């Protein structure tokens, strides 16, 4: 479990299934994501059970539930790579909670954990270039735009580009040493 100013990033719980199904079924939340919509409640129950059983120490994706006052408002996934020194991340926040800094807070807390507690060398992320809010968030927390993969992902019947972002531990620590928050 990771705690930030307003949020708790924790394991998923069975009681999260209804909220998970709701925001994962929202076309606006799913617009730039690869999952299918709508997400039925039985499928959400199964997904939440899989998420709850995931191990953050194992290679592969570990999904954190983003909770505000005990309520699930989104999720943040960390994909630990085989070398255990690099990870990818992705995030989603329910529409009523977007634009309030919750995703930024969650990403900042996970980055602190990955770099300072786990000793990661590099964290990567990617997003659809049309998802300007996510691209701005990644840059705000210190990621550098590293490239563009043209028409590399098939999403809802169309080929879309992927913006590539990366953040090195050295850059993250330099920002902290300079007295600021990374990206700030």
TrEMBL record:
Domain N-acetyltransferase span(s) in chain numbering: 7-170
Keywords: Transferase
InterPro entries tied to this protein: Acyl_CoA_acyltransferase, GNAT_dom, N-acetyltransferase
Top-rank lineage group of the source organism: Bacteria
Transferase as UniProt keyword: yes
GO molecular function: acyltransferase activity, transferring groups other than amino-acyl groups
A Pfam family: Acetyltransf_3
Protein name: GCN5-related N-acetyltransferase
Classification lineage: Bacteria, Bacillati, Actinomycetota, Actinomycetes, Pseudonocardiales
């Amino acid at each position: 479990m990771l705690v930030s100013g307003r949020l708790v990033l924790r394991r998923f719980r069975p009681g999260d299934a209804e909220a998970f199904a709701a925001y994962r079924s929202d076309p606006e939340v799913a617009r730039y994501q690869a999952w299918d919509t709508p997400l039925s409640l039985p499928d959400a129950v199964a997904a939440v059970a899989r998420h709850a059983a995931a191990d953050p120490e194992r290679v592969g994706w570990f999904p954190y539930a983003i909770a505000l006052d005990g309520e699930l408002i989104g999720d943040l996934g960390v994909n630990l790579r085989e070398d255990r020194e690099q990870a990818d991340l992705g995030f989603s926040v329910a529409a009523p909670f977007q634009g309030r800094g919750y995703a930024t807070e969650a990403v900042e807390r996970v980055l602190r954990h990955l770099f300072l507690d786990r000793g990661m060398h590099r964290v990567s992320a990617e997003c659809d270039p049309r998802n300007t809010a996510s691209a701005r968030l990644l840059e705000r927390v210190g990621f550098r735009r590293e490239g563009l993969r043209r028409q590399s992902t098939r999403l809802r019947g169309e080929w879309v580009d992927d913006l590539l972002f990366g953040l090195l531990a050295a850059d993250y620590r330099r920002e902290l040493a300079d007295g600021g928050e990374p990206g700030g």
